[in-house]
Specification:
Elements (H helix, E strand, L loop, with lengths): L9 H24 L3 H17 L10 H19 L9 H9 L5 H17 L2 H12 L4 H8 L3 H27 L1
Helix pairs in contact: 1-2, 1-3, 1-5, 2-3, 5-8, 6-8, 7-8
C-alpha cells in the first residue's frame, strides 16, 4: 500500500457498517431538520464522513442511531449556517431546544423507513419509477416527462396519485402497528 492510501481499523469499519445499516433512519431524522431532500442527502454523506473520523468515540453496544443522529444534528446546523439557509429553516436555538427536550425515539424512524419501503414495493411499477425519478434522482416533472414520454402535467397527476397511495398505505401500516 502506498503511504497516501487511507487505512481503517476494524472499529472504524464496524462503525461504517452500522452507519450504512442505519443510513435511511439517519436521513429520515435529517429531513425533520432540513426538508430539502438534496440538502439532507448531502448532510447524511457528510455525517458518514464525520462518523468515520470520530469512530473511536463510539462505544460498541450503545445506541448507534442516537450517536449518528447527534452528529447529523450538528452537521445540519453547520450546513444551514454555512449555506446561509437559516431564513427558510428552524432557527438554530429552536433546533437545540427540540433536541434537549424529550428523547427522540429513533426506532420510530427505522419503522417508518421500513414501512415506506414496503409501501413503495406495493406501488404499480410505473408509479414506483416516477417516485424514484422525482425523489431519489431529484428530477423535476418536466425532466421526468421527457424521460418517460409523457406530458409534465401527466407526470404531476401520476405523482400526486402515487403520493396519495403511499400516504394511505403508511396510515394503514400505522393503524396495524397500533392495533
Amino acid at each position: 500500500m502506498s503511504d497516501d492510501s487511507i487505512q481503517f481499523d476494524d472499529h472504524t469499519l464496524a462503525v461504517q457498517t452500522l452507519f450504512v445499516q442505519h443510513q435511511q433512519a439517519v436521513l429520515a431524522y435529517v429531513l425533520t431538520l432540513e426538508p430539502d431532500l438534496h440538502d439532507a442527502q448531502e448532510i447524511v454523506q457528510e455525517t458518514f464522513v464525520t462518523a468515520s473520523r470520530k469512530a473511536a468515540t463510539f462505544a460498541v453496544g450503545t445506541n448507534f442511531l442516537a450517536w449518528a443522529c447527534a452528529i447529523a444534528r450538528f452537521n445540519t446546523l453547520h450546513y444551514q449556517r454555512t449555506r446561509s439557509r437559516r431564513n427558510a429553516r428552524l432557527a438554530e436555538d429552536v433546533v437545540e431546544l427540540l433536541a434537549q427536550h424529550g428523547e427522540v425515539d429513533f426506532s420510530v424512524f427505522q419503522s417508518q423507513v421500513t414501512g415506506l419501503r414496503r409501501c413503495l414495493q406495493e406501488l404499480a411499477p410505473k408509479a414506483r419509477e416516477l417516485v424514484n425519478l422525482r425523489y431519489h434522482a431529484g428530477k423535476l416533472p418536466e425532466q421526468i416527462a421527457g424521460e418517460v414520454g409523457w406530458t409534465a402535467n401527466s407526470v404531476r397527476v401520476a405523482l400526486t396519485r402515487a403520493r396519495n397511495a403511499l400516504r394511505e398505505c403508511l396510515q394503514q401500516t400505522d393503524q396495524e402497528a397500533t392495533s
